[in-house]
Amino acid sequence: MNRVWGLAGIFILLTMFMLGCGASEKNKQEANQPATKEEQIWPRTYVDALGHEVVLDKQPQKIVTLMHVLFPDILLALGSEPSGVAGADAMFNQWEAYQSYTQGKEIVDIGEYDSPNLEKILELEPDLIIAASEYHADAYNQLKAIAPVVYLGYMETGGDRNLGIREVAKILGKETEGEAVIANLDHKIAEARKKLQDLVGADETVIFCTANSDGNFWLYNKNITPTNQETGLGLKVPEPYPDGEDLVGLEGMTVLNPDYLFIFVDKSSDTTSETMVKEQLKGPVWDSINAVKNDRVFIVDRSWFAREAPVATDYGIDAIVDIFSKAN
Fold first, then answer.
1. Which of 71, 111, 242, 322 fits as disulfide partner to 246, beta carbons 3.0 to 4.6 Å?
2. Alpha carbon distance 171, 60 (integer Å)
3. Helix locations, the chain, DSSP H
4. CA end-to-end distance (rounded Å), the chain
């Protein structure tokens, strides 16, 4: 009998030992398992345009941007709706390109880009503030006291659509999504370019501009998406055309004599309305322009292609293709 109990005891001990080894091995395996994708990328350090090393412990969810275009646009493209935007009520919440994103939602206006309301920003309890190095460097200490603040070069990222997308995606840990936004937009531009080649004559010219209260026209740079010959829609500007943005009078517009004229206005503003533009552009000189004679002047919302931002550009492409489809 004692022998039986002895064997039973040995069996129990062996079993416990094996279970212990199994548990130990399981713990080792769990300890050696790679971290999830989310765990791998957070926390992360981002070096901003002013050289600040900004440490973000987790993916930002409540983001405030101190510029009304570009930064909030890229956030929307990446699926990260901003909580607060400079000039939101007067511009961002009103512009055509963003209506499908902003209707029924509250994107808080945190003041003008050059004088943001710090109290409003504080009330939003953001976990990230995106600022422009050209405009907000002096407010660094005040902004940093509210939340981590990242500075981006507004002119630099506005002049390179892909750079802006990639930098914001890097901050948010959304690099994959950023590359998808770039690829989709490149594809859309290529497809639209093919369509426009069948809709616009090879010798027909196009101008994109704004009109001011003095009856002058601010010509957009010919390298914006609609008229960029290499990476854009390839619409042709008349010659001679300035290398950069430039101001011309009515006589200058008659010299350029475009076949199509797009005039951007801020339809959310009382001072730069469509009615005002129509009222000031009258008379025999204006009527001599080809675009006017052929009823091909289009007064459109300023959000189209704004700052070459992805959502605004995507919207502008659809609008341009639609206009040329109906005009031909």
1. 242
2. 9
3. 2-32, 37-41, 71-77, 99-102, 118-124, 140-144, 154-158, 161-172, 175-199, 250-256, 274-280, 284-287, 290-293, 310-327
4. 105
Count Cβ atoms below 10 Å from residue 295 Cβ, excluding itself. Answer: 8
Distance CA 80, CA 276 (A): 36
DSSP 145-201: TTS-EEEE-HHHHHT-HHHHHHHHHHHHT-HHHHHHHHHHHHHHHHHHHHHHHHHS-
Residue 225's SS3 state is helix
Residuewise pLDDT in 10s, the chain (328 residues): 444 344 444 444 444 444 455 545 545 555 555 544 555 689 999 999 999 999 999 999 999 999 989 999 999 999 999 999 999 988 888 899 999 998 888 899 999 999 999 999 999 999 999 999 999 999 999 999 999 999 999 999 988 889 999 999 999 999 999 999 999 999 999 999 999 999 999 999 999 999 887 889 999 999 999 999 999 999 999 999 998 899 999 999 999 999 999 999 887 665 556 777 877 788 999 999 999 999 999 999 999 999 999 999 999 999 999 999 998 7
What is the Cα–Cα distance from 289 to 255, expressed in whole angstroms? 9
The amino acid sitting at 161 is R
Sequence-separated (6 or more) residues with CB below 8 Å from residue 225 = 161, 189, 231, 232, 233, 305, 308, 313, 316, 317
The answer, yes or no, to whether the previous bond of 148 is cis (omega within 30 of 0) is: no
**In 10 A of CB 97, how many CB atoms?**
26
Q: Which amino acid is at 119?
A: E
SS3 label, residue 218: strand
Closest to 221 (Cα-Cα) out of 233, 213, 209, 212: 209
* Amino acid in the structure at residue 102: T
